[in-house]
Amino acid sequence: MIDLNELAMFVHVVRAGSFSEAARRLGMPSNTLSRRIDQLEGQLGTRLLHRSTRKLAPSAEGQALFERYAPALDQLFEIERLHSGKKTPSGTVRVTAMAGLFEFFRIEWLAEFYASYPDICVDFLLDDAATDLIAERIDLALRMGVETGTGHKARRLAPSGMVLAASPAYLEQCPAPRTLRELAEHHCLTISNRQGRTTWRLQGPRGSQEVPIKSRFAVNDMRVLTQACIAGLGIALLPQPIVEPIIAQGKLDRVLPSYRRASSELDLQLVYTSRPPVPPAVAAFAEFLTRRLGDAMPGIANANASRQ
């Protein structure tokens, strides 16, 4: 029979990404933890973890074991927590989000969360590139558009889109375009792409239209693109949740406000990697994210889970 304690230790190691970090969280010596995992592998007759001096990752068998039993163990931990009188969830929640998350999610909100859940730790991985949620041991992904991958539950938080903006300094030097045709004569700032596209497809009064652009500056980080726009390098197509607070501060102005890029692929989504039942710590932070973003962004939709 499998030792549930060793199985729980294995789950902790996978989530922590290292024996030393898992041992710290469990309050036990790292060599003891390593020995217990060796015992579990010997009992199962298979290698669960690939280990090197720099990296630790679950094997195919280890990943399958983790995905199958981690949710059940989380529920056992929750039952134990309730019966022990501990009233708040605990553990580490790993969250990946767009690089510009903290342009509209205020960092001081986390103080409120930690006050309510002192035993939860949150690790953020901010990146505009697609993330392998399983390989990075991600619990929640906050993205514009549906996260790549299958088997994950996604909650649609809000309709979103991209709007055109430029700094007042740029618009003083180059008067704002009045038509899409005039936009083609301006310096534009874009997200780098391997296809080297030089067109924007926008929705406006005449429906969907495509306009060729002159890309003066391209970068693969939305934060840097926003900074370049604020610095007056040109006109950028920026996510509405990120750009609206900056416009309110007077650092950017809308350009061609009747045009925007909008599609269901740009909706703000919260993606869960855990299969039901969701671990209590993950559920707590997911609900906090949904509530706080609902306060910050008008038009937040009610939770609407769907399969990817």
Write the layout of secondary structure elements.
Blueprint: H1 4-16, H2 19-26, H3 30-44, E1 49-51, E2 56-58, H4 60-83, E3 91-97, H5 109-116, E4 120-126, E5 140-144, E6 153-158, E7 162-166, H6 168-173, H7 180-183, E8 187-191, E9 199-204, E10 207-212, E11 214-219, H8 222-230, E12 235-239, H9 240-248, E13 253-254, E14 260-261, E15 268-272, H10 280-296, E16 305-307
Parallel strand pairs: 3-4, 3-5, 8-11, 8-12
Antiparallel strand pairs: 1-2, 5-15, 6-15, 6-16, 7-12, 7-13, 7-14, 9-10
Helix pairs in contact: 1-2, 1-3, 1-4, 2-3
State the gist of this model.
The protein has 308 residues and is of the alpha/beta class.
Descriptive overview:
With 308 residues, the chain is α/β, with parallel strands linked by helices. It has 3 domains: 4-73, Arc Repressor Mutant, subunit A; 91-160 and 265-307, D-Maltodextrin-Binding Protein, domain 2 (3-Layer(aba) Sandwich), CATH 3.40.190; 162-262, D-Maltodextrin-Binding Protein, domain 2, CATH 3.40.190. The protein is built from 10 helices and 16 strands. It is elongated and about 75 Å long.
